[in-house]
Amino acid sequence: xxxxIQVQEKRFYLQSLKIKAFCxxxxxxxxxxxxxxxxxxxxxxxxxVHALNKQYRGQDKPTNVLSFENEGIQAGDIVxxxxxxxxxxKEMGKPxxxxxxxxxVHGTLHLxxxxxxxDKQAQKMEKLEIQLLKEMxxxxxxxxx
Length: 145
Hints:
By secondary structure, the chain is of the alpha/beta class. The chain has helices at residues 12-15, 19-30, 46-57, 82-92, 96-111, 119-135; strands at 2-7, 38-44, 65-69, 74-81. The protein has a single domain (2-135), classed as Metalloproteases ("zincins"), catalytic domain (Collagenase (Catalytic Domain)), CATH 3.40.390.30. 50% of the residues lie in helices and 18% in strands. A four-stranded mixed β-sheet has the order 1-2-4-3, with helices on both faces. The protein is globular and about 30 Å long.
């Protein structure tokens, strides 16, 4: 699989100089789709994510992660907002990279057709997120810290 990482928001490098390799490893571990798939990741600032969220979801605010699923070899795009991610990690008492891993797994599952619109869908997706993150050595992201 091919994973293209674009670091638009340079503050991601403050968290890890190997941020691209980190993201590639997490996504590759969570991917169960086509082996020839291509995924694009943008590590962005809040303003960029805010504009996308408003345009595509009608939400006039930034969010932590957006996923845009495509069909075929180009599986889709994952966009992560630095400021929202950093604030959420701090509020939850979690390390930045641990929360980033969760958001990347979450986005990758969306690209594979998972969703959380209904309670049943959410339970299924959360269970898989917990399992995948555990396999990578991360704690349950839904457990209170």
